[in-house]
Amino acid sequence: MILNDILDGRFCVYLHSIDNAIFYVGSGRVTRAFECVRTERSRAWHEFRANRPVTVTLFEFFDDPNEARRKEYRLIKSLKPLANIHGRERPAPEKTIKFKAAPKPKKQKPISDKPKRLRKGKAIYAQELGKGPRVLYNSGKEAAEKLGIPASYISRCLRGFRKEFGGYRFWYAA
Asked: Which of 37, 121, 128, 147 has the fewest CB atoms within 10 Å of its CB?
């Protein structure tokens, strides 16, 4: 059996090193470990490599790409290889890698002692069917709480999708 047949379609975690110093940890299909084309690797990887020969070590094999990524993450966290930047700047041994500055944090508004203004709903009337007096409520929500009716049904009555609900008729106060 040929090695390509065994490894075909499998995922791996691989290490790139120069002079026995690991500078990159990656995961992907086995062929990914050997790709060194300019467009396939980050700028940090190419600047660290600087045309020196790279040793590729296939560290561990997986059938599931998510398992490979988890192992890659743990290795990056423990080894802290220089070309795995992941959002933080690390200098390469021979020259400093320049990155765009992180965006400045937004200014936070000072905390106010004033209570926030509550949103006010439209005043509505509710009238029990056949009985009588109409009752004024400051909002549909207030009516829902006091009458024990879901606010969505009161809203449907107010918008004309229903005439009544729960033994009540509702309309907006002018």
From this structure: 37
Q: What is the dihedral of CA 86, 76, 73, 11, to 10 degrees?
A: 110
Q: Of 25, 60, 79, which residue sits at a domain end?
A: 79
Q: Please tell me the distance from the alpha carbon of residue 72 to that of residue 25, in angstroms, as a whole number.
A: 7
Six-digit token string for 14: 């691989």
Coil, strand or helix at 78: helix
| Residue of 121, 132, 124 lying closest to 171 (CA atoms) | 124
| Tens-digit pLDDT string for the chain (174 aa) | 455 555 667 889 999 988 888 889 998 888 888 887 656 787 778 887 888 888 899 899 988 888 888 899 899 888 888 887 654 454 444 444 454 555 677 776 666 555 555 556 788 999 988 878 889 998 888 999 999 889 989 999 998 888 898 889 998 887
In a domain, 22, yes or no: yes
- Tell me the whole-structure pTM to 2 decimals: 0.47
**Distance between CA 30 and CA 2 in Å, rounded?**
14
Residue 129 domain boundaries = 124-172
**Among 38, 41, 33, 39, residue whose Cα is nearest residue 57:** 33
Contact (Cβ atoms closer than 8 angstroms) between residue 14 and residue 61: no
